[in-house]
Model the fold of this input.
Amino acid sequence: MSGIMIDGIYNKSLYFPSELQEMTNKILSYDKKIICTKHALDMQNREQTIKRIGAINIQEFITLDSLRSGEVVECYISKGELTKFVIRIAYDDKYSICAVVVPSINCNLIVTFYLNDFDDTHRTLGVEKYISLAQISSKSP
Done:
């Protein structure tokens, strides 16, 4: 079912209409500057991050090309607009980096990032916080 989008959070493993991928593709098609927030920069220096992957310069790792090659796994829709999305980018054979991106007119803002095991299947995903096909079906005529 496509064409129906309600406000909320969409997760690729639950329900992810093709329009979401189209929206993120369009955003990433523009050559906008990538800016990391202080929080994102602080995350690269966290003891847990360094223990798991060593030193990383997140500003060098997260580029427009790496965002374009990543997999969009979550989208936040508010008032019909894409306000935030999460992209999973392969890092090495053990970890991927999930970047939380807030698009704006002038840039793509990296709010934060976190590490995921490369083979994470999200067994503990809190499905109740995400939009489901059942919710969409109940809204359709």
Observations:
- The mean pLDDT is 89.
- The beta strands are 8-11, 33-36, 71-78, 81-90, 95-103, 107-117.
